[in-house]
Recover the amino acids of this structure.
């Protein structure tokens, strides 16, 4: 695959959407993981 | 918009009645088919996205792998939605008050829009013409969003 310098519109939209999904998923699952740790700490100290 | 009346109505429909009354029908036509379709959907997503990430099937062109996987993805998605509506109708009011149900619906909506409005149009032509970083970002986002659909879906069964 050759690396192009300029992204076309479809690629730009895809990159922005994919980036938004990746960041949102990391925040959501990170939040769930921290919640689980707090719950375990409350339950078992 | 208040959605609770819709969920209350869903439980009174024929689908809701069948699902609530006949556990065997709920387990076979609902849960079993739903989980099998989820396995097919997850498989098609992983095959296509791991190929895009150059992890598996490197000897097969990614255009062929993604095209073939998408056919099964569409079939699995239709089965998932049909069996999902049947299952949700039986316990609609419980679903309305379940945070993970709404998390799953949000992830499902994002996943469907992402696949049909962004991923498919992008990957329809030759992948050699696309920026490899964008392809890999799309593959990672796709895996994450469908993982979220599956995980929050299973979480419904283990919460309130």
């Amino acid at each position: 695959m050759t690396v192009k310098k300029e992204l076309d519109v479809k690629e730009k939209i895809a990159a922005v959407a994919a980036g938004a999904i990746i960041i949102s998923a990391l925040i959501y699952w990170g939040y769930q993981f921290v919640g689980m740790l707090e719950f375990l700490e409350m339950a078992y100290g | 918009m208040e959605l609770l009346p819709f969920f209350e109505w869903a439980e009174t429909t024929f689908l809701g009645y069948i699902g609530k009354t006949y556990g065997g029908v709920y387990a076979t036509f609902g849960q079993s088919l739903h989980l099998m379709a989820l396995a097919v959907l997850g498989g098609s997503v992983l095959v296509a996205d791991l190929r895009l990430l150059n992890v598996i099937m490197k000897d097969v062109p990614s255009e062929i792998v993604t095209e073939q996987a998408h056919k099964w993805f569409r079939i699995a998605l239709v089965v998932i939605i049909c069996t999902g509506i049947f299952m949700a109708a039986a316990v609609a009011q419980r679903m309305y008050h379940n945070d993970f149900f709404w998390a799953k619906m949000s992830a499902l909506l994002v996943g469907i829009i992402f696949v049909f409005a962004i991923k498919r149009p992008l990957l329809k032509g030759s992948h050699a013409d696309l920026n490899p970083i964008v392809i890999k970002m799309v593959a990672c986002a796709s895996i994450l969003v469908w993982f979220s659909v599956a995980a929050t879906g299973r979480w419904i069964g283990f919460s309130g």
Notes: Chain A touches chain B through 19 residues (CB under 8 Å). The mean pLDDT of chain A is 88.
